[in-house]
């Protein structure tokens, strides 16, 4: 339960930082059906990036991995449909394994050009990693959709659990 509360707090913090950085932000433009769905935030990310740049770099975990290393492992496991590995890389998997495996298999996500840009430590147990990527997944309505997260990217949270970095239950769920 504590993990769920902490995840909600991190999500709320990110939402507040993104929403509160600039009053002049313009909403994202919807994509037409012939191009990948853009999923970048507005100029608020620049304000967030400036605030996060003041934070220290994230330390290594007990296995010598960075938070970014764990995200690369998570992405490779998603692309390989290695659902046990994906599930094991989550910090606080609140959902039942069989249920999420069914959802993940239906979505069949594939990531391309997954790029790590920087990682910052919020505290000793939480880091944020800025990533960009492209890919495709099947939406709940059955439509296969491309996605694109270009610069400035997205900030994904990673938690330290028992000395190891683990992905917070916040990356985009396909």
At the third CATH level, what is the topology name? Nuclear Transport Factor 2, Chain: A
Number of helices: 5
Residue runs with pLDDT of under 50 for 5 or more positions: 1-43
Shape: globular
The first-to-last residue Cα distance is: 23 Å
| Strands, count | 5
* Portion in strands: 25-35%
pLDDT averaged residue by residue: 78
How many individual domains? 1
The ordered H/E elements are HEHHHHEEEE
> What percent of the residues sit in helical stretches (DSSP H or I)?
25-40%
Q: What is Rg?
A: 16 Å
Largest sheet: 5 strands, mixed
Going by CATH, the architecture would be Roll
CATH class, named Alpha Beta
Q: Which secondary-structure class do the elements indicate? A: alpha+beta
Distinctive features:
174 residues; alpha+beta; Nuclear Transport Factor 2, Chain: A; 5-stranded mixed β-sheet; globular
Topology:
Elements: H1 2-20, E1 37-38, H2 44-53, H3 67-79, H4 83-88, H5 97-107, E2 110-123, E3 126-138, E4 144-161, E5 164-167
Parallel strand pairs: 1-4
Antiparallel strand pairs: 2-3, 3-4, 4-5
Helix pairs in contact: 1-2
Account of the protein in words:
By secondary structure, the protein is an alpha+beta fold. It has a single domain (2-21, 36-167), classed as Nuclear Transport Factor 2, Chain: A (Roll). Helices cover 34% and strands 29% of the residues. It has helices spanning 2-20, 44-53, 67-79, 83-88, 97-107; strands spanning 37-38, 110-123, 126-138, 144-161, 164-167. Strands 1, 2, 3, 4 and 5 form a 5-stranded mixed beta sheet that branches. It starts with a helix and ends in a 7-residue tail after the last strand.
């Amino acid at each position: 339960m504590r993990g769920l509360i902490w995840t909600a707090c991190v999500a709320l913090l990110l939402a507040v930082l993104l929403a509160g950085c600039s009053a002049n932000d313009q909403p994202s433009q919807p994509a037409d059906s012939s191009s990948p769905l853009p999923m970048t935030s507005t100029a608020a990310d620049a304000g967030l990036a400036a605030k996060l740049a003041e934070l220290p770099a994230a330390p290594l975990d007990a296995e010598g991995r960075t938070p970014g290393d764990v995200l690369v492992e998570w992405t490779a496991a998603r692309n390989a449909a290695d659902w046990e590995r994906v599930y094991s890389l989550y910090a606080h998997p609140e959902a039942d394994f069989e249920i999420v495996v069914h959802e993940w298999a239906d979505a069949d996500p594939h990531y391309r050009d997954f790029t790590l840009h920087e990682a910052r430590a919020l505290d000793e147990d939480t880091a944020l990693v800025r990533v960009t990527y492209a890919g495709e997944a099947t939406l709940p309505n059955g439509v296969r959709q491309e996605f694109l997260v270009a610069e400035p990217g997205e900030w994904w949270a990673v938690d330290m659990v028992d000395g190891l970095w683990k992905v917070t239950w916040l990356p985009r769920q396909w």
